[in-house]
Amino acid sequence: EVQLVESGGGLVQPGGSLRLSCAASGFTFSSYWMHWVRQAPGKGLVWVSRINSDGSSTSYADSVKGRFTISRDNAKNTLYLQMNSLRAEDTAVYYCARGRGLRGYFDLWGRGTLVTVSS
Amino acid sequence: EIVLTQSPGTLSLSPGERATLSCRASQSVSSSYLAWYQQKPGQAPRLLIYGASSRATGIPDRFSGSGSGTDFTLTISRLEPEDFAVYYCQQYGSSALTFGGGTKVEIK
């Protein structure tokens, strides 16, 4: 089955760190650019970061630049998001998504993992 | 950054009616690199349309997309009960990918 499964979310204090993982299966992971998209409770979708197929190129939204790091392990079919210096406004469901087309629209989504930043 | 403005915020319609959702960009979206997604409560978004007018795999033909430049439209020709959801547009023509704020299609 073609799917993405996120893990690693949870409750973290402001200023803390968390690493999210996204396990891919059912398709050739190493052929696709991958993305993280987040959604704060009751709010809309916000693109966070992307990484190209071999991991050599990354891009970030201004709101997370310098605090978040996207990476991937194609041997393990896994995407990561290292989140440091977390703020209350980072509270959201984080989705990993498979990218298609120039820069990316998203044709496959995981179910998401909830990150809550609170003291 | 390209800002996408969706209207209306909420659309109240009955099953069988036609739904017309608008997405307006703050600047031209190159090569019509615009997508539409459907999201139901507690679920991940689902891709409906890419390239402004191409239906994704498995999407019924009652969903159609149109537009270019700064004005785009998603049309649902006859609403089915499962179509009541929130719809988002997204542009991928610029390096900073952006989404619209969403349109909720609710049962009247």
Molecular structure report:
The complex is a heterodimer of chains A (119) and B (108). In chain A, 0% of the residues lie in helices and 53% in strands. With 119 residues, chain A is an all-beta fold. In chain A, strands 2, 4, 5, 6, 9, 10 and 11 form a seven-stranded mixed beta sheet that branches. A four-stranded antiparallel beta sheet of chain A has the order 1-3-8-7, with no helix packed on it. In chain A, a hairpin with a 5-residue loop joins β4 and β5. Chain A is globular, with a radius of gyration of 13 Å. Chain B is mainly β. Helices cover 0% and strands 49% of the residues of chain B. Chain B has strands at residues 4-7, 10-13, 19-25, 34-39, 46-50, 54-55, 63-68, 71-76, 86-91, 98-99, 103-107. In chain B, the strands form two sheets. In chain B, strands 2, 4, 5, 6, 9, 10 and 11 form a seven-stranded mixed beta sheet that branches. A four-stranded antiparallel beta sheet of chain B has the order 1-3-8-7, with no helix packed on it. In chain B, β9 and β10 form a beta hairpin. Chain A binds chain B through residues 35, 44-47, 50, 59, 61-62, 95, 100-107, 109-112, and chain B through 31, 33, 35, 37, 39, 43-47, 50-51, 56-57, 88, 90, 92-102.
